[in-house]
Amino acid sequence: MRVLLTGSRGQLGSCFQDRLPAGWEILATDSEQLDITVLEQVKAVVSQFKPDVIVNAAAYTAVDKAESEHERASAINQDGPRNLALAAKEFGCRLVHVSTDYVFDGEADKPYCEQDDTNPLGVYGKSKLEGEKAVLAVQPEAIIVRTAWVFSEYGGNFVKTMLRLAQERTTLGIVSDQRGCPTYAGDIAQAIIVLLQNRAAGGIYHFCGDKEVSWSEFAQSIFSIAVESGVLAQAPQVNGIGTEQYPTPAKRPKYSSLSCQKISENSVEPSNWQLALSKIIPSFR
Ligand SMILES: NC(=O)c1ccc[n+]([C@@H]2O[C@H](COP(=O)([O-])OP(=O)(O)OC[C@H]3O[C@@H](n4cnc5c(N)ncnc54)[C@H](OP(=O)(O)O)[C@@H]3O)[C@@H](O)[C@H]2O)c1
Q: Choosing a second label site near 230 at 20 to 30 A (CA), which of 149, 205, 219, 221?
């Protein structure tokens, strides 16, 4: 299997490289080596490397900043995936693209299935939804993995922010009225690998953590593992606060759990995020 990876320096891109199966060849590209918004560049790299599959781990992921950077968010999250799909179609390879729980409005009361109606609340979610549509319009056999609340040992994420804040403060107010499923980027990478190995059918798959929590409950899990593993001397007190007490430029869904039923029929289990936390937090010591 020859894999062209985009966004190689991001959380998913880094974890994907760490898990590359033996015998697979990879061309891992960051935004300097391959800017997915430039179609000619995409076509040149694909025609030269001749991958069997393109794994798109590149994205504009700054949810709040996207509210004031519509054009950039749309170029990276909509035009970029379309460019990759066009090149995949022209040069005869498959595309795996990654999307988000933020394509939903959060009004559901049970985990979202792949066919549920989308209604993104912010610019980021809208740009990711347009990216999904652009990919499937060009290459219906492409695989799109929607995921949520991503963390890893790489890059910036909620886990690292919480551990930093815990060093600075003894009490933290964390949002407790938004619920979702944390997902370890290493497990997303592994899920993509299994889908490719199983030659899974094209279309959208939901993949996220196996346990739904609020942000404040997620923070408490992080702190208890950090104390157990000696990364923190003591956990700060976590006070649950309402979304209105932590205003952000982008509106977020209050509920965004994803049903992993479909992907589990392809031998992929949901992300055991508590296990992943207990493996990566000790390395932050
Ligand atoms: N993070 C989350 O909580 C979350 C939640 C749900 C879904 N997702 C989705 O999961 C996927 C992976 O997210 P992640 O957290 O791994 O993202 P990330 O850590 O923010 O990495 C994204 C990467 O995209 C690259 N990139 C940006 N613009 C590019 C361009 N024009 N051309 C090529 N590369 C470009 C960046 O590369 P440089 O560093 O080289 O600029 C960055 O390394 C994304 O599709 C995201 O939408 C993420």
A: 149
Domain count for the chain, please give it.
Answer: 1
Report the candidate in 154, 128, 14, 12 with the shortest Cα–Cα distance to residue 74: 128
| pLDDT for the residue 110 | 96
- State how far the Cα of 240 lies from the Cα of 238, in Å rounded to an integer: 6
Task: Kindly report the protein residue whose alpha carbon is nearest to atom 45 of ligand 1.
Answer: 98
| Torsion angle, alpha carbons of 191, 143, 99, 213, to 10 | -40
- Whether the CA torsion 171, 172, 173, 177 is positive or negative: it is negative
| Ligand 1 binding residues, C-beta < 6 A | 6-7, 9-13, 30-31, 34-37, 57-61, 76, 80, 98, 100-101, 128, 147-150, 155, 185
pLDDT at 272 over 90: yes
Range of the domain at 71: 2-157+182-210+256-271
- Find the CATH number of the domain harbouring 194: 3.40.50.720
Q: Is there a domain that residue 135 lies in?
A: yes
